[in-house]
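To the structural biology subgroup,

Please find below the input and predicted structure for Short-chain dehydrogenase/reductase family protein, which we are adding to the shared reference set this quarter. The sequence is reproduced verbatim from the submission form. If anyone notices a discrepancy with their own records, reply to this email rather than editing the shared folder directly, so we keep one authoritative version.
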Amino acid sequence: MLLCRTHKSATQLSSGHSYLLQCKMSSALPTFGFSTTAEEVVDALASEVTGKNVLITGTSLNGLGFETARAIAKRANLVIITGHNAPRLQLSADAISKDQPKANVRALVLDLSSLAAVRKAAAVVNAYSEPLHVLIHNAADTNGVYTLTVDGFESQMAVDHFSPFLFTKLLLPKLLASTSASWVPRVVAVSSEAVYMGPGIDLSLPSLAKPAPGSPQMEYFVRYHEAKSANVLFAKGITQRSGGKIRAYSLHPGTIFTNVHEKEANAAMLKSVGALTEDGKPNTEIFKWKSIPQGAATTVIAAFDPRLSDKSGSFLIDGVEANDKLTPILTDPASAVRLWKLTEEVIGEEFDF
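Predicted structure (tokenized):
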């Protein structure tokens, strides 16, 4: 919305004196939906995206994070892409630069399976001269098998929640430095519709950090459900605690066939629930699939759409608020408080604004 002001009052208008007249000129934004692509969102929100500095985790080729970065790079001032494998990360950087020759792309090695590595990467970002307008947590552990990180935590929760929590804490000064009269920094957590397909998240420390092998929490889909639920509660926790200094959102990107689905453990699980056919192809008879460009759209909307400014903490589907889809444990403010405190205990430090 554009505001134009002159300085004459209505009564002074006829006498030729100065006046104050406010006129509101709204530039209507399009309605985003299931079929909207990330690039269409960037073009529609060009004034919001232009000049921004954005960091996106998990940007491997043929993935949602890569497409999110590629689309945003079209207009942003700086796009920082991350990955734990330096050669693969460089392939992504080269592909974006080839597609968007004028883009300013910076590759950052980030291993979310190690809290020490997260601290190292955060120190690199904090040494950059630019502030950070948007932080997008897209990366996730998709191995589908029970493993422990170097810190002794179950890997899905560590990569999907503990490390993003710490990374956000460490980058908070960079985010706050982007604040202006027209911008409040944003944090976006890519979650999943899996959050409303299970019993909820067990908010006890042993289960959260290191559930026993063979426990119900370690069934592939249940743990994925819990890790993605943590994303939702993290966004709500930021909203609760930041006092309006940060806007945060979680989202379901849609059902998309990406490089993740080609992993053996993931494919087996998806076949078991009918999402993939026996030959590993998307089952279009049961699920409505999005393309990767369509799947990345809601992430870009969460990062920039001004219509979400008063909806911080929301869970989004197809670019719009969908809090009604959440289970009671994910809408209870006490759950976000509990998870926040437990996560502080896990990482060994408090996260205050």
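Summary notes: The chain has two domains: 1-30, 35-262+291-347. The first strand starts at residue 2 and ends at 8.

Regards,
Lab coordination
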